[in-house]
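Q: What would this complex look like in 3D?
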Amino acid sequence: MTTTVIDGRELQPPEPMERTLEALDTLAEGDDVLLLLYCQPHPLFSILKKNGYAWGEEVRADGTREIRIHKLPG
Amino acid sequence: MHASLSFDQAPPISVPYRFFLVAPWFGATAGILLVWAGADALGSRWTPEALALTHLIALGFMLQAMCGALFQFIPVAVGGNVWRPRLVANTVQPLLLLATLLLVAGLLFGRPVLLSAAVPLFLLAIGGFVTVVALALWQTPATGMTLWAMRMAIAGLAITVLLGSLLAEALAHGFAVPIVDLTNVHLGWGLGGWALMLLAGVSYHVVPMFQLTRPYPSWFTRSFGLLLLGFLLAWSSRLLLDDALWSPLIAYPLLLILSAYAGTTLWLQYTRRRKIHDATSLYFRVAMLSMLAFAVSGTVYFLRPELGADPRFVVWLGVLALVGVFVSAITGMMYKIVPFLNWLHLQRLGAPISAVPNMKKMIPADAMTGQLRLHVLAVLMLLTAVWQPGLIRPAGLALAASFVWLGCNLAGAVRRYQGFRDQIRAAA
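A: Here is my prediction, written as structure tokens for the whole assembly.
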């Protein structure tokens, strides 16, 4: 299993979303994308929900949100 | 890539833009009003010109821009769905525009019939807006302090408009109400409960996102909104309590929490690892420095009653709050929101990412920083003109010119969106 890490904390929108969507395009079965941000990317969540991806979210002590995205089976 | 991905059902781009494109022209009208009125306009907060000017900025510019931004911000930042946004915007925005023009004309020319005509239009427009926005904010599954600040802000807007309607009817029909106290409570809710609450809530989300700072400390976001709300409720009690000591006792902590918000935002900007000095960051810096200047001036106002007795002192505070803080912060936000919305809606056409122009191409950076410099000049000239009335006409001219430039920058961004959209559709 491979994790592609995208640190979007020092990138200006929409670059984190662009990089995430590009990474999802080449995501293999069982792999995931780990996106690091300081905010909740609702537009991205909406795209993920509509296109068969699932994600989990954890908040670190420094306020960083770890958003781990993978493709739903089927 | 991702031509196969479907994008979210955010409101049509025309919904926020119909508010954004109108807002700067109210600001330009405020500048022209100063040029027309001349030296006596800012002699006190109660001159017809000062009252008209205040509402041209607060309703014409700020409220139009903030309503437009909320339609887009609710789905993008807190995942909420506003009921039939196109219908609501197409109804609320023209009603608001007409109501503002009637109110401003009524205040400027002393026509009670115009004040009375404006009231039902405001109640209808804001009543409808508050209802649909409140439903969206209470139904979203999202959590966090941005959401809570927005909920409190929308309640603050409702209270402001109810108090304003009461004041307008009292002026129109000569009702016996405590006009001065009621006005102070009305502006407390308008500037604090609505505008500042919303600005702070939105800042928690957009300052880290667009200005690349660390997040606001959680102890700050958890306490700021509640403290502001609590002190505004206490500030409102002046309608019931007639005690000269009461106002300063409430005002000092209120000014302290304003300073805490401004200081925290400046500190976050100062300590970010990647320094960017685009128009939005600079506009926010101007807004926060104006807020600190407002807090210091407000403290002096209560500490030195002999200075506060000069009616121009409150006008100075008003210029700092309206033009220094809120026009600056809102313009800075619009310079990020509009390019971002252009980009987001072009993406939704299903084009490959490479075919969608970079956000930086939506409004030229030079045009934004040039407009920012003119705005700062206008703020400084207005502040000087409060004490040197001979400068009021040039200050009004600078204010009008800065808003016209803003209006042209936003209109140019919309034209570029239409051009890029047509190119993408033609290529498809």
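A: To summarize the key features: The helical segments of chain A are 15-25, 42-50. The first strand of chain A starts at residue 3 and ends at 7.
Q: Very helpful, thank you.
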